[in-house]
From TrEMBL:
<keyword id="KW-0813">Transport</keyword>
<feature type="region of interest" description="Disordered">
    <location>
        <begin position="1"/>
        <end position="21"/>
    </location>
</feature>
<dbReference type="GO" id="GO:0055085">
    <property type="term" value="P:transmembrane transport"/>
</dbReference>
<dbReference type="InterPro" id="IPR035906">
    <property type="entry name" value="MetI-like_sf"/>
</dbReference>
<feature type="transmembrane region" description="Helical">
    <location>
        <begin position="36"/>
        <end position="63"/>
    </location>
</feature>
<dbReference type="InterPro" id="IPR051393">
    <property type="entry name" value="ABC_transporter_permease"/>
</dbReference>
<keyword id="KW-1003">Cell membrane</keyword>
<dbReference type="Pfam" id="PF00528">
    <property type="entry name" value="BPD_transp_1"/>
</dbReference>
<feature type="compositionally biased region" description="Low complexity">
    <location>
        <begin position="1"/>
        <end position="11"/>
    </location>
</feature>
<keyword id="KW-0812">Transmembrane</keyword>
<dbReference type="GO" id="GO:0005886">
    <property type="term" value="C:plasma membrane"/>
</dbReference>
<feature type="domain" description="ABC transmembrane type-1">
    <location>
        <begin position="94"/>
        <end position="307"/>
    </location>
</feature>
<feature type="transmembrane region" description="Helical">
    <location>
        <begin position="293"/>
        <end position="313"/>
    </location>
</feature>
<protein>
    <submittedName>
        <fullName>ABC transporter permease</fullName>
    </submittedName>
</protein>
<keyword id="KW-1133">Transmembrane helix</keyword>
<dbReference type="InterPro" id="IPR000515">
    <property type="entry name" value="MetI-like"/>
</dbReference>
<keyword id="KW-0472">Membrane</keyword>
Length: 323
């Protein structure tokens, strides 16, 4: 016997089969999980090669560990840090890191800003010049440092030869404290100025051209346009380059190591940086625990310097917003 719906009423809808609901449920689950699946490789690699070494270095810094016997670990607590802060050469390397960082970062960013301003104009062959800016950055650190070590040679160096032509005596660029730090800073300036210039150039090209046209209609010279239009528009880019250059200066290692080929940074440690001091303690004296403590001090120093830069930039932004 078949039942039919009364006249004037609609038949009840037929429920969908159970199999039809499965694809939609699977699709919704995939939409939820897929973003995490896409970023999972990055976090996996970061945990394996970034987070784990960082935590393990903090663990090793609390023990006495020698390179010859890495399995024999003796608990020292904060002993490596207290021994570090009482070491005279640690403070010398910290001072050298600061002075070389200032000597290399400030001229580097100022020159990069000027070069980017010139390349921003319509010049003949500007594509060639923009490409040439990256050549020092693409050069090997070892090759560049060895060439500059020859240029700054005391007896047969080209720099002393040029100084002699203008009436100056020879400068000992390897033994003198200030002279050797200037030489190492020159290598850093040569390698990174073009890189930062291209970053500034990209920032300048993102500034609306209407601002320059309005300033030119108001009678502003190119210098005033640079001061009142370019620099304010480049402030986030400048903050970025300052932060990156500060981190690089704190981690400076290759240039001072290869400049004279000494892990002590000269006869009197006159240009030994924190990175070179860490290498000397870990692979020169075989004190892995103390080297790990130096690595964590460098990490905390970078965090503090980046935080100070961010705080200063935020205060400057708030002051300008109140005007």
């Amino acid at each position: 016997m078949t039942l039919t719906a009364p006249a004037g009423t609609a038949a009840p809808p037929t429920p969908p089969p159970a199999r039809a609901a499965r694809p939609s449920a699977v699709r919704r689950a995939w939409r939820t999980v897929s973003p995490y699946a896409f970023i999972a490789p990055f976090f996996t690699l970061f945990a394996a090669f970034g987070l784990f070494p960082l935590l393990y270095t903090a663990f090793v810094s609390l023990y006495r560990v020698e390179l010859q016997t890495p399995g024999d670990m003796e608990w020292r607590g904060l002993g490596n840090y207290t021994a570090l802060f009482t070491d005279e050469f640690f403070w010398i390397s910290l001072r050298n890191t600061f002075t070389i960082g200032v000597l290399s970062t400030v001229p580097q960013l100022v020159m990069a800003l000027g070069l980017a301003h010139l390349l921003n104009y319509r010049l003949r062959g500007r594509t060639f010049f923009r490409t040439a800016m990256l050549l020092p950055y693409a050069t090997s650190v070892a090759a560049a440092t060895l060439v500059f070590a020859q240029l700054f040679g005391r007896d047969f160096g080209l720099v002393n030869y040029v100084l002699g032509l203008v009436g100056f005596g020879p400068v000992d660029w390897q033994t003198g404290t200030v002279a050797s730090q200037i030489a190492v800073s020159t290598i850093v300036i040569w390698r990174w100025t073009g890189y930062n210039a291209l970053i500034y150039l990209a920032g300048m090209q993102s500034i609306p051209s209407e601002l320059y046209e309005a300033a030119e209609m108001d009678g502003a010279s190119r210098w005033r346009q640079f001061v009142h239009v370019t620099l304010p528009g480049l402030r986030p880019t400048i903050v970025f380059t300052v932060v990156v250059s500060t981190i690089g200066a704190t981690q400076l290692f290759g240039e001072p190591l290869l400049y004279e080929g000494s892990i002590s940074g000269g006869i009197s440690h006159q240009y030994q940086t924190l990175g070179l001091y860490m290498y000397e303690q870990g692979w020169g004296f075989f004190h892995l625990g103390r080297a790990a403590a130096i690595a964590w001090v460098m990490f905390l120093l970078i965090v503090v310097l980046v935080g100070v830069n961010a705080l200063l930039a935020r205060r400057r932004t708030r002051k300008e917003a109140r005007r």
